[in-house]
Amino acid sequence: MSxxxxxxxxxxxxxxxxxxxxxxxxxxxGRDIITLSHxxxxxxxxxxxxxxxxxxxxxxxxxxxAVDGMPELKAAVACKFAxxxxxxxxxDQIVIGSGAKLILYNAMVATINPGDEVxxxxxxxxxxxxxxxxxxxxxxxxxxxxxxGFRMSPDQLAAAITPRTRMLxxxxxxxxxxxxxxxxxxKAIAEVLVAHPEILIMTDEIYEHLVYDGFECASLAAVEPRxxxxxxxxxxxxxxxxxxxxxxGFAGGxxxxxxxxxxxxxxxxxxxSTISQIAAIEALDGPQDHIARHNVSFKARRDVxxxxxxxxxxxxxxxxxxxxxxxxxxxxxxxxxxxxxxxIATDEDFVGALLDAEGVAAVHGAAFGLSPYFxxxxxxxxxxxxxxxxxxxxxxxxxx
Length: 400
Ligand code: PLP
Fold this sequence. Notes:
Layout: H1 15-28, E1 34-35, H2 47-58, H3 71-85, E2 94-97, H4 100-111, E3 117-122, H5 127-134, E4 138-143, H6 154-160, E5 165-171, H7 183-194, E6 200-204, H8 220-223, E7 231-236, E8 249-252, H9 255-268, H10 274-285, H11 289-310, E9 325-326, H12 347-358, E10 360-361, E11 363-364, E12 374-377, H13 382-398
Pyridoxal-5'-phosphate binds near residues 39, 101, 175, 238 and 249.
């Protein structure tokens, strides 16, 4: 007999964590494994930010804060939204949480009724559909392949809307593809949404600082002010400030919804780490020059990854605007056989055989809702990355 609640049937363990675990087990068994499934920058938290956290501990600033965040951090977040996104939020329109992930989840719990539909362009970040399911909603995916640069078109959005649609999630730049929407792309999407005042919009902009080739990110609520009153703009310190382990996320949006998120947070998390909040103030208010420095390195690695994957037999790799992921198609490998005699029927077979043959851990596209692709994170040492890409080329060449 199982003591698990019925809702657990609707939740999977994150497949990206699953792949990391499998790779770690092989590593522990002595295999030479290169992991390309990381979801975090490989840079250290900037020194000034780390120092602010250390100082907070020395100053004994170690007690609970206001549940929805310290007023000083809310002020820094308000400045950040104005400076980077052209968005004005008052303190009671801002919530600070223990990571953007918890804010996204609490926002869904606060706004989704059983059976409500949530439109999620695919490929999507693995957590969205499971969060929707935990909030008793229904995910409606919109497949967006590389022919549209992995972006959803306004027509695709219009076709996905039904009388049950409650929310749209937009993630730009995207995990897993790195694709980002320009202001013009968002304006076209906004035109569809303006005609549907019943739809709430959640934009996940956690990778906004990681963009290359002069690409400029835009926020939907700023691009189309008529959507401001029903858009939740989610962001955080994790990716742009190399602070994944500090667990600080934040959002701006309608007062009623922000208050509801705060109420849920008061019951399931309380205030985020005080030390981390103090460090996040320094991250947002302090020097921003590390972002450009990190991006030079990320862009170089993106280009090596795209070029080497594109040259691998049976792969085709789109060059994305941002984040630290690429999402190559392995359509040209499907139906081929490995030297061990296994047929590659799916992208899951592809990454499984790649791990077995060459010790390279990537994540299959089915985990992100769009096949046949796989995701590579290039946030690792450049020489290790080059070695992994060489192994992928060798693996692809070995398929018959
Ligand atoms: N949103 C996306 C698209 C992500 O990829 C991630 C982390 O991988 C998050 C949100 C969560 O970020 P945080 O570390 O702030 O919880």
